[in-house]
Amino acid sequence: MDTLSRQQRHDNMAAIKGRDTKPEMIVRKYLWRCGFRYRVNSPRLPGHPDIVLRKYRTCIFVNGCFWHGHEGCRYYVVPKTHTDFWIKKVARNKERDRREQQQLARMGWHCITVWECELKKNKRERTLSSLAYTLNRIYLKDRTVTYQSPEEETGLCMAAEPEVED
């Protein structure tokens, strides 16, 4: 049984924002401080990603654990009222997220999902530094092309092995 009246519940649900949420702002401020430049909620891409870094061909989705059904997270709990509705709604959200990320991947975009629970104070710094590391690795991987002759490819030794002389 819901403890709020229908009007109170309606007002609560209507107040929930779809953009510029606190978790989004945490990620955006961190990226800006680190020198990453981005666009917000790009209407040209499937799913209107929360953050788009064109230089890195990367889209970042900052997902709320409840709304996107973060499995195994303590913040994703199915409400006790209207259970069938909420299970179906979250399942639709998850399917939509999967479909949009597949479309972006086919278009050549990298997709990163940052969960709300990973931005809580005790995990925030590790999550954000991991995000910056991943973006730098994506940039280096996409920009770095090494050419090796077939002789070089077959003649490589592991760093821990001494070279064998004939």
Kindly list the characteristics that best describe this protein.
DNA repair; Restrct_endonuc-II-like; endonuclease; single chain; 166 residues; alpha+beta; four-stranded mixed β-sheet; hydrolase activity; Endonuclease, Chain A
Tell me the layout of helices and strands:
Blueprint: H1 6-14, H2 22-33, E1 39-40, E2 51-53, E3 58-63, H3 83-106, E4 110-115, H4 124-143, H5 150-154
Parallel strand pairs: 3-4
Antiparallel strand pairs: 1-2, 2-3
CATH architecture descriptor text: 3-Layer(aba) Sandwich
Average pLDDT reading: 85
CATH homologous superfamily assignment = VSR Endonuclease
Choose one word for the global shape.
globular
How many domain units? Answer: 1
Strands of the widest sheet, in order across it, are 1-2-3-4
Q: What structural class results from the helix and strand content?
A: alpha+beta
Work out the helix count. Answer: 5
Share of helix, binned: 40-55%
Tell me the series of helices and strands, N- to C-terminal: HHEEEHEHH
**Number of beta-strand segments:** 4
Describe the 3D structure.
There is one protein chain. The chain is of the alpha+beta class and 166 residues long. It is 42% helix and 10% strand. A 4-stranded mixed β-sheet has the order 1-2-3-4, with helices on both faces. Mean pLDDT is 85; it is low at 145-162.
How would you briefly describe this protein structure?
Its EC number is 3.1.-.-. The chain is of the alpha+beta class.
